[in-house]
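Long-time lurker, first post. I've been practising inverse folding by hand and with some scripts of my own, and I keep getting stuck on stretches where the structure tokens seem ambiguous. Below is the full token string for one chain I'm working on. Before anyone asks, I'm not after the true native sequence, just a reasonable design that respects the backbone. If someone could post their per-position residues I'd love to compare against what I wrote down in my notebook.
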């Protein structure tokens, strides 16, 4: 019954927008798929139903197509499955997210060349042959209507480029993501509607809407929000993450004028999988090596419990006094029952490596305080971001800014051996240390060894850090 009602909800929404006196263009949108190809058959069915109902349909993606599902990310041709699925579904245009660069710009250049749809971005300047300069925009024609898509990717995360290791962006320069799109709003003169296709997060999308009011719609990504709001006349949208939903933007024209625009999220769980796409996905999931058993859990590990496992595992592998890990690097929300190799790779799909360093309690406190008060990566600030094997307390003021960090079990002045992943080591501000040494050991190997040695593992979901 639910499947029928959800399917009917999409059709009713689209059909209600159709009028014999008006022309309709429907934009179907995805963002932050994160390699969740297991849901692609439902997306394919939803797209088919819409195309069967409405003549003028455009299918777009706002970035972060991979990193998050080992059956895509570590396929025989890594990350190729999502490209093949999108090609088959006939996407019309896409942009880049920060995770497109996880395997480096040369790898991304190869995969982008395999896309049978334009991948556009207005704020990338390429100085390398391995990553050809992307076009800043694309114009898609449907039913005689010209719909422009101007795109950008965040450069607000780290060192003026998307979040990730500096070496992944060699040869690339990123201009301001909001300004790059705002500066092209005059393209509206050449189009019947102008869409910003962004991977900058809802907060920055709101800034863009205020700065560039000639855009009709912003189709966004990056912050994993479910967004449907209007800012200064600009419709701002986002579908969440992991193909939980498809976005449906309806544009209605009377003559040369865009007279109505509306947006709705449609959950994909309500659709039966399209058989041809289901067979493709089952083929990707047939790798026996990824289904090999690693360990058993005696209960469910929640997000905090998984972070605790990371910290204990790196501490042990690094022969350290303290293990630390960032919550953004824990890519599953929970884990229970039998743990297989695929789960290990899904926990850390980045190929992260173990690093050790010598740090004092004051240096650890400075690292935590700096991250808590982060003014650049706002989605990562004012929360417990850095988990540790040793407890600490963040004391805040009336503005909820960290004033001090106390470590009740560490001694002032003493140097401690600290183990961490290389993402913190390479990208976090406020990190002071001596004798920092990358080990070259993959964190997936560290997690594998830790869980095997403790199977069946009893979950520890108790938080060790708190905010006062």
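-- Answer (accepted) --
I ran through it position by position. Result:
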């Amino acid at each position: 019954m639910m499947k029928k009602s959800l399917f009917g909800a999409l059709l009713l929404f689209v059909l209600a927008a159709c009028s014999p006196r008006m022309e309709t263009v429907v934009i179907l949108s995805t963002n932050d798929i994160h390699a969740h190809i297991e849901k692609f058959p439902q997306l394919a069915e939803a797209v088919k139903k819409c195309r069967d109902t409405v003549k003028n349909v455009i299918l777009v993606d706002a970035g972060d197509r991979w990193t998050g599902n080992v059956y895509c990310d570590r396929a025989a041709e890594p990350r190729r499955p999502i490209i093949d699925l999108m090609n088959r579904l006939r996407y019309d245009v896409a942009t880049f997210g920060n995770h497109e660069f996880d395997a480096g710009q040369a790898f991304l250049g190869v995969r982008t060349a395999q896309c049978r749809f334009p991948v556009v971005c207005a704020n990338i300047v390429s100085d390398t042959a391995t990553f050809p300069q992307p076009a800043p925009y694309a114009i898609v024609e449907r039913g005689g209507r010209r719909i422009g898509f101007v795109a950008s990717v965040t450069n607000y995360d780290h060192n003026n480029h998307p979040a990730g290791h500096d070496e992944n962006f060699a040869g690339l320069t990123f201009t301001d993501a909001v300004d790059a799109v705002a500066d092209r709003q005059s393209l509206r003169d050449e189009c019947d509607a102008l869409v910003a296709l962004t991977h900058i997060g809802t907060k920055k999308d709101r800034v863009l809407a205020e700065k560039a009011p000639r855009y009709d719609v912003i189709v966004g990504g990056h912050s994993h929000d479910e967004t449907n709001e209007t800012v200064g006349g600009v419709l701002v949208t986002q579908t969440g993450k992991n193909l939980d939903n498809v976005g449906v933007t309806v544009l209605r024209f009377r003559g040369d004028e865009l007279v109505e625009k509306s947006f709705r999220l449609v959950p994909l769980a309500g659709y039966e999988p399209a058989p041809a796409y289901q067979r493709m996905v089952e083929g990707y999931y047939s790798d026996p090596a990824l289904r090999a058993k690693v360990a058993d859990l005696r209960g469910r590990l929640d997000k905090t419990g998984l972070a605790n496992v990371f910290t204990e595992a790196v501490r042990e592998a690094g022969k350290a006094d303290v293990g630390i890990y960032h919550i953004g690097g824990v890519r599953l929300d929970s884990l229970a029952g039998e743990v297989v190799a695929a789960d290990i790779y899904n926990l850390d799909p980045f190929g992260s490596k173990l690093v050790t360093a010598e740090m004092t309690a004051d240096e650890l406190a400075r690292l935590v305080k700096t991250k808590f008060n982060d003014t650049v990566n706002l989605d990562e600030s004012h929360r417990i971001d850095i988990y540790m094997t040793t407890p600490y307390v963040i004391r805040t003021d009336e503005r909820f800014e960290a004033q001090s960090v106390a470590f009740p079990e560490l001694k002032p002045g003493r140097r401690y051996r600290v183990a961490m992943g290389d993402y913190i080591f390479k990208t976090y501000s406020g990190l002071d240390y001596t004798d920092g040494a990358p080990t070259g050991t993959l964190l997936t190997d560290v997690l594998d060894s830790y869980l095997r040695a403790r199977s069946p593992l009893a979950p520890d979901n108790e938080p060790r850090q708190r905010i006062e």
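A couple of notes from the structure itself: The radius of gyration is 23 Å. Residues 292-467 form a domain with the 5'-nucleotidase;  domain 2 fold (CATH 3.90.780.10). Happy to go over any region you disagree with.
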